[in-house]
Specification:
The chain contains 32 helices and no strands. By secondary structure, the chain is an all-alpha fold. It folds into 3 domains: 28-189 and 199-306, Up-down Bundle (Rhopdopsin 7-helix transmembrane proteins), CATH 1.20.1070; 321-404, no CATH class; 425-591 and 598-709, Rhopdopsin 7-helix transmembrane proteins (Up-down Bundle), CATH 1.20.1070.10. Helix 4 runs parallel beside helix 12 (269-284), helix 4 packs across helix 14 (295-306) and helix 29 (638-665) crosses helix 30. The longest helix is centred in the first third of the chain and has 34 residues, at 102-135. The two termini are 55 Å apart. Mean pLDDT is 75; it is low at 231-235, 307-323 and 713-726.
Length: 726
């Protein structure tokens, strides 16, 4: 960092005075293809890796030196996860070059270089620890045992500090894709005549070469020790250890080799994408390897995730106001507080803090089992505060939603985003595209789905079904599906007439708002249903405590609030005959040369996160359910296992594909054929659940035919404990 502190040296190396701001922008390259894997993989790695860090702290692991070193490696990986995956994803989306944000990228580069050096050295210590332990456990305990392990913590910290202070940073570059030590790596010498040799980082080169050499030697020694050892170990254990070492070597060697190559040559774009994914996997993939290779670690992971072994006696999960309080100070800053919506959010924050403190007090009361007559004054005052804050919270939220509906209520904001003044009515008519291929499936499939699905809703509302939590949640999902089915049928008319946004803007806007809200509600309801299924598999009493009785309606309220948020704060999902698939851009498929509007302002961050998180949760829940079913010791028939896995697979495929299409549509223009495919999958997801419900569930099928044909079923159809198609 002495380069950053010494302004003259910093200016000689990282000056941005060579070109103007406009010229620097011309050299920036937007990388949506790199943004998506960064965000998706980063979210997945965070979900799998961060709990693993806490698992290392458990008593049965932390007393071992290797787990102490792995805990340190996990902390460094977590820092890299934030700096080099999530942050890089945002920077790729914006196409930022060094001179557009020099201070940010310089500091980020320092953190990147220091974390990579720390990762390398910690991995070396970890392999040394394992090697010495295999050779002699007694000798290993003398070197790494007890508090002596923290000496290695200190060495790693000093090593990272050296790379942060005395070496050149590893700078982000949207052009070269992989980070580079040269801030002008993407600019030719004749445009910017700077000596590129001065950016050569000898320390980083030696670190990477030494790291690769050590890994190769360690792998050879490891394999030799395992194969020739006289210790009585099983052949399977030998193979497992060799495989782990191989994975560790490959994971770390790929980014090390890419950093060496980038100092000598320009890496092709396709290769750079592959190396970027490999580097990110080296950062975040260790969590998956730990879960895959270690059964005890896997059990500890599920303990952390599901709080299986650390629930309090009262069963209450405490909430902390400490995460919310800093947000209150941020809202109170002048640049935020002068806006009405932030003033209302500040008031809402105060009410939320009060209710959060109440929940902490409730936790103590639950633990002590304090009833009203043991502390009547406390209970009464606490109840008055809770009721008052809750009413105030509801009213403030309602006012905030009305204030934030600025797109409709604020004509200037609406005209900025959805103005139809760019072209005349005749010019808009030239962009009309009639999609007869989209009309027929929309109308036919919509009618079929309505005929099958509407009676299913009536069946689910019957007493023998509706008393069970899973059927209540399925009933809510069915209502949302029916609304979206009606909308998709309306799409058929829009496709037939080629009605573009500016032909009926208010109609499109309201229809898009309803579509976005219902899709968000559908996603959240699916997640809640999957949670209910997973919890029910793990523990039926716990599932009854969380989802039983009227408590299911609390989840109804959560879904409703989630839908209100998307209808008020997110941009609508507008149907576009030109693009076939619904889109957030009202001018989709119209060139920017015709309508000079910045299309990036239509990026819907809320919807993007909803779809990405939905994808990750669905896939994670499906994998967890499959693992639980396959590894459970409960005596279940093999046919039941296969049936449950198959049904979960159907649900995952149904919901994953439309989410993936909606994510992709925000970054790239999909071909027409692929858009038709995405539209088909959206309609299949919305309407086919009724067919699946009838196919997989015998009791609902009997009730369905009873309703349709007015058959008096004798004897009464037995009700399955839960809809297994979920």
């Amino acid at each position: 960092m002495e380069t950053f502190i010494d302004s003259s040296k910093y200016e000689s190396l990282y000056s941005c005075a060579h070109l103007s701001a406009a010229q620097w922008r011309d050299h920036a390259v937007y990388r949506p293809n790199a943004t998506l894997p960064c965000i998706v993989l980063g979210t997945f790695y965070a979900i799998t890796y961060i709990p693993c860090i806490f698992v290392h702290l458990k008593k049965r692991f932390i007393h071992k030196p290797c787990h102490k070193l792995m805990f340190l490696l996990g902390l460094i990986d977590a820092a890299s996860l934030a700096a080099n995956i999530f942050t890089y994803g945002a920077l790729y989306a914006e196409g930022v070059s060094f001179c557009q944000a020099p201070t940010l990228l310089y500091i980020l580069g320092v953190v990147t270089q220091a974390c990579w050096a720390g990762q390398c050295l910690t991995a070396v210590f970890l392999i040394l620890c394992n090697l010495i332990t295999m050779y002699s456990k007694c000798f290993s305990s003398k070197i790494f045992g007890g508090d002596r392990i923290f000496i290695f913590y200190g060495i790693v910290a000093v090593y990272m500090a050296y790379f942060a202070i005395f070496t050149k940073p590893l700078l982000f570059s949207s052009v070269t894709i992989l980070p580079s030590y040269d801030p002008y790596a993407h600019i030719f010498g004749e445009v910017l005549p700077a000596d590129r040799n001065q950016y050569f980082n000898w320390e980083a080169l030696m670190n990477n070469i030494a790291f690769i050499s050590f890994l190769m030697i360690a792998l050879i020694v490891f394999v030799t020790i395992i194969c020739r050892t006289k210790l009585q170990v099983k052949k399977g254990v030998q193979f497992m250890i060799m495989r782990q070492c191989l994975f560790i070597c490959v994971l770390n060697m790929i980014p090390a080799a890419s950093f060496i190559a980038s100092q000598f040559t320009v890496i092709p774009e396709d290769t750079a994408y592959v190396l970027l994914v490999g580097w990110q996997f080296a950062i975040g993939g260790r969590g998956m390897l730990l879960l895959y290779f270690s059964k005890s670690f896997r059990q500890g992971f599920f303990d952390v995730i599901f709080n299986a072994s650390s629930l309090s006696k009262s069963g209450v999960v405490e909430q902390s106001p400490l995460m919310y309080i800093p947000c209150m100070f941020v809202l109170f800053k002048r640049q935020f507080f002068r806006k009405p919506c932030y003033k209302l959010m500040f008031l809402l924050g105060l009410l939320d803090i009060s209710l959060t403190i109440n929940t902490l007090i409730y936790g103590v009361l639950y633990a002590e089992g304090v009833i009203f007559c043991l502390a009547p004054s406390l209970h009464f005052i606490l109840g008055v505060i809770t009721q008052t804050c809750w009413v105030g919270q509801c009213l403030t939220t309602a006012i905030l939603i009305v204030v934030k509906m600025d797109i409709i209520l604020n004509p200037s904001e609406y005209n900025r985003l959805y103005s139809c003044q760019h072209l005349s009515r005749v010019e808009w008519a030239q962009h009309i595209v009639r999609r007869s291929h989209g009309t027929v499936p929309c109308l036919i499939l919509g009618t079929i789905y309505m005929i099958i699905y509407v009676p299913c809703i009536v069946v689910l509302a019957k007493k023998q079904f509706f008393k069970k939590p899973s059927y209540k949640l399925t009933f809510l999902l069915a209502l949302l599906d029916i609304i979206l089915t009606v909308i998709s049928t309306t799409y058929g008319i829009v496709y037939a007439e080629g009605i573009i946004f500016c032909a009926a803007p208010l109609f499109h806007f309201i229809l898009g708002t309803i579509t976005q809200a219902c899709w968000a509600g559908q996603c959240l309801t699916c997640v809640i249903i999957l949670m209910e299924r997973v919890v029910d598999f793990c523990s039926k009493p716990t599932a009854a405590r969380i989802f039983g009785g009227r408590r299911t309606f609390a989840f109804y309220a959560i879904v409703l609030l989630y839908m209100i948020f998307f209808s008020a704060f997110a941009k609508p999902l507008i149907i576009s005959p030109q693009a076939v698939m619904p889109t957030y851009d009202p001018y989709a498929s119209i060139p920017e040369s015709v309508i000079p509007v910045d299309r990036r302002q239509y990026l819907n961050i809320a919807a993007l996160f909803n779809n990405l998180i939905f994808l990750v949760i669905l896939l994670t829940a499906f994998m967890a359910l499959v693992v639980f079913i396959c590894r459970t010791k409960i005596e279940v028939n093999k046919g039941v296992q296969i049936k449950a896995i198959r049904q979960c697979g159907f649900i995952c495929i149904l919901n994953v594909l439309p989410s993936a299409f909606l994510v992709a549509a925000q970054f790239v223009s999909l071909p027409v054929s692929m858009s038709y495919m995405g539209l088909f999958f959206c309609q299949l997801t919305i309407g086919s659940r009724g067919i699946l419900l009838l196919y997989f569930n015998k009791s609902t099928r009997e009730a369905f035919f009873d309703l349709i044909f007015n058959i008096k079923s004798l004897p009464k159809a037995s009700v399955e404990p839960s809809p297994p198609w979920i």
